[in-house]
Amino acid sequence: xxxxxxxxxxxxxxxxxxxxxxxxxxxxxxxxxxxxxxxxxxxxxxxxxxxxxxxxxxxxxxxxxxxxxxxxxxxxxxxxxxxxxxxxxxxxxxxxxxxxxxxxxxxxxxxxxxxxxxxxxxxxxxxxxxxxxxxxxxxxxxxxxxxxxxxxxxxxxxxxxxxxxxxxxxxxxxxxxxxxxxxxxxxxxxxxxxxxxxxxxxxxxxxxxxxxxxxxxxxxxxxxxx
Length: 226
Fold this sequence. Notes:
It holds the Pfam family TetR_N. It is a single chain. The protein has about 230 residues and is mainly α. The chain has helices spanning about 15-40, 45-50, 55-60, 70-85, 95-105, 110-125, 130-155, 160-185, 195-205, 220-225. The longest helix is centred in the middle third of the chain and has 26 residues, at about 130-155. The two termini are about 35 Å apart.
């Protein structure tokens, strides 16, 4: 998930926690910029720390590897997405997802456009770096897990409900696929065709077609298998 640029730490955090989050994002942005410009294989921890204006000791206080450094940049957008879905009205979350995709992936400010460009650079660098792909997979898996909890609460269904699991996977994968395909095209966030939002909405429309959330556990699985 891309960073909604200009995102600030939640006001409930302490001053120390806000500073920590800001430092993490500074390092993440520096890493993303260097990965996009040079490829992950040509970037060192030392160069990331220098670009972020921190010491090596500070870098390793927050991250174990250079690839881990981009995780906050990728996951902060997922947090915004989860909070927006949780705040949506009770009922069918399938109706809320397309609007939330637009709110997340349609940039309206220069800072938001820059945030998407950072994410695009990281996604393109993943082609040649398995460790970066692992970080991206971890971010998406955690987002899907959290979405299951939110969708279950919105629909008053068990977290283990099959339809809840499928819908959480469809919502997560629609954004993942939209961003990955957009990054592969090299299109600008404001392009009239092939934008990440347009692609993600299309993916969700196809992936979510026919999903039902049953009151009876495994109702969908039993009907589909039978």
